[in-house]
Amino acid sequence: MDTRVRPQVVARSAPGFDLRAWSGTHLERVEQALSSWVVMDAPAGLGDAMRYAVLDGGKRLRPLLVLAACEAVNGHTGAALRAACAAELIHAYSLVHDDLPCMDNDVLRRGKPTVHVRFGEAQALLAGDALQALAFELLTPDDGTVSAAVQAALCRLLARSAGYQGMAGGQAIDLASVGLALSEAQLREMHRLKTGALLQGSVLMGAACGVVPVAATAALGEYGAAIGLAFQVVDDILDVTADSATLGKTAGKDAAQDKPTYVSLLGLERSRAYAQALLAQALAALDASGLDTNGQARTHALRALADMVVNRDK
Amino acid sequence: MDTRVRPQVVARSAPGFDLRAWSGTHLERVEQALSSWVVMDAPAGLGDAMRYAVLDGGKRLRPLLVLAACEAVNGHTGAALRAACAAELIHAYSLVHDDLPCMDNDVLRRGKPTVHVRFGEAQALLAGDALQALAFELLTPDDGTVSAAVQAALCRLLARSAGYQGMAGGQAIDLASVGLALSEAQLREMHRLKTGALLQGSVLMGAACGVVPVAATAALGEYGAAIGLAFQVVDDILDVTADSATLGKTAGKDAAQDKPTYVSLLGLERSRAYAQALLAQALAALDASGLDTNGQARTHALRALADMVVNRDK
After folding, report:
1. Mean pLDDT, residues A65-90 taken together
2. How confident is the model over B231-249, as pLDDT tens digits?
3. Cα separation, A113 vs B206, whole angstroms
């Protein structure tokens, strides 16, 4: 059973669109590509640790967002597949490092022992480092399949999503916030960087695989920002309401680590309402994007993914 | 006193060329660029840790190699300055991670407490991660100053130098080799990846800033491979013959950690002879490159840097 994607309210935002079938097709391409690109021939066990970190797990939300955005702009599918995998590698490396003892010290991830538990801390550190480099390697093939302009744009977007203005910066705020009472604005800024930047970056990388009017790119950026934040709000909700077995990772750890969350700040009901408001915002951005003209519903996958992000149960 | 570069036998390989003056000019540009690009506005102390890791220290050998190679091919100096800084960021991040307790557990680097001693392990981990991303960010400006083709080529070279086929792969072999009796071939392979790949990559990035015949690029690659290996042989020699105060890092740590080195494998005298042979090889590659035609000694800085690598005392 494919448990990675379980759309529940697809009908509401993308009538007639079958996200399960769409995801199935696209996930198969992503899994095959990841398996062939995350190499076994890396030396001294490094390849094993890299593959363990990446393969066989995860919702693959970032790859799906890249591919859905590429579809929305009728972009270059080969470039998008590379960008999809690159975004997933950045995500995977961040989890490996985040799980290390000096960070969250977590032993369970996607229902399996974390990378450092399985391979040791040093190898986990290196595997994360190598995955980040591999992401940029995937974006820069020298086989003539992807134009230099698209390669450069993808590297630009990914580097900014991953670095100090994005994911790594958000992690630093997270680190500094344990035990502190954050305002909602501070919490939002932390998540905008920590999780939102790479989700939004995934959408924008998909858009960069095609030729798009500036206004449409801006709309896709708004969509990405809204679902990026919604993703974290829902994560905070699930950390409280779901159990470890369903999540495939340790539930309740935010509260245990005294981390500020949307639930601790807004309460459960207001957090749920906020997630729904962000979904509406994401869909409104797509409405305004101008991409669904001439009777073509190009944004249907993006719409259904937004639904899935907000209404998932794991 | 500028103690970073002390050429000693410049006259031999690049007659009449003043490496000290050349380096002084170029290092000033590199330091200014690093200081402006390694940002203070990264959140929650991350910027402080990043700057601490990068600024105010190091021989800056990789940046100098990029700039010297760019000069040899009469390339785009703006692109080369970005590539020079990007290579240094990758080097700096690798030192931060390499010094962590789960790796070499070192407390002294460039005469100062290591990043995790000063900022904590978690922040050091994040600073390293963010520096790697920043390297690719520097290579992909969107201000029109560097062509997309050069941006893509630089990202391609840097990612391969840093990743599983390069530095990270070499680190993994290093990790797996402690206490083992390596053959010379195995030791060479480890260093070719661990240190050599980024040094060679720096030379090739400099070359990618210009338009070069394939044969010249190949010759520069040979030069880079030779000095990359020579660098490590000399490092092994200095680990035995120099003291911590001169090195600015803990001397004798290879032996203390029971790591295989050229000195432990070949002895001191044969290691010294090997380093000189590699220098000769590097210079021969430049002779064959065809870059010094029409009475123009374009490779003089590369020659003098090769001398410095082999004949340095720290």
Report:
1. 98
2. 999 999 998 988 766 656 6
3. 43
Mean pLDDT of A10-36: 88
Best B38, B97, B129 residue to mutate vs chain A (most A CBs within 10 Å): B129
Strand, helix or coil for residue B179 = coil
pLDDT (0 to 100) of residue A6:
43
The H or E element containing residue B109 is strand B108-109
Residue A303 Cα to chain centre, angstroms: 16
Q: Which of B127, B148, B173, B146 is nearest to B81 (CA)?
A: B146
Q: Which regions of chain A does DSSP assign to beta strands (E)? A: 108-109, 112-113
With H, G, I as helix, E, B as strand and everything else as coil, classify residue B57.
coil
| Per-residue pLDDT, A252 | 65
- What count of other Cβ atoms lies within 10 Å of the Cβ of residue A16? 8
Higher per-residue pLDDT: B15 or A102: A102
Q: State how far residue A122 is from chain B, nearest Cα, in angstroms.
A: 5
Bridge partners of residue B113, in order along the sequence: B108
Q: Which residues of B touch A39 (CB under 8 A)?
A: 164
**Torsion region of A181: left, alpha or beta (phi above 0 gives left; psi -120 to 50 gives alpha):** beta
- Cα distance from A140 to chain B (closest Cα, Å)? 5
Interface contact flag, B159 A134, Cβ < 8 Å: yes
- For B109, B110, B111, B255, the CA distances from B245, given in Å and listed in that order, are 11, 9, 7, 18
Q: What is the pLDDT of residue A177?
A: 87
CATH of domain B10-311: 1.10.600.10
Q: What percent of chain B has pLDDT over 70?
A: 91
The more confident residue out of B42 and B174 is B174
CA nearest to B116 within chain A: A102
Q: Which residue in B122, B169, B175 is closest to A122 by CB distance?
A: B175
Contact B175 A44 (CB under 8 A): yes
Residue contact A172–B142, C-beta within 8 A: no
Position A40, amino acid:
M
Greatest mean pLDDT among A264-268, A299-303, B56-60 lies in A299-303
Please give the angle made by the CA atoms of A95, A98 and A99, to the nearest 5 degrees.
85
Contacting residues for B238 by C-beta, under 8 A, at least 6 apart: B247, B251, B312, B313, B314
What percent of chain A stands above pLDDT 90?
77
Distance CA A25, CA A17 (A): 14
In tens, the pLDDT along A205-214 reads 999 999 999 9
Of the partner residues A132, A135, A153, the one whose CB lies closest to the CB of residue B129: A132
**Residues 6 or more apart from B236 whose CB is under 8 A from it?**
B254, B261, B262, B263, B264, B271
Give the phi and the psi of residue A3 in degrees, each rounded to 5: -100, 5
Q: Is B47 helix (H, G, I), strand (E, B) or coil?
A: helix
Q: Does the beta-carbon distance from A159 to B169 stay under 8 Å?
A: no
Interface predicted TM-score (ipTM): 0.93
Lowest mean pLDDT among A60-64, A104-108, B56-60, B127-131: B56-60
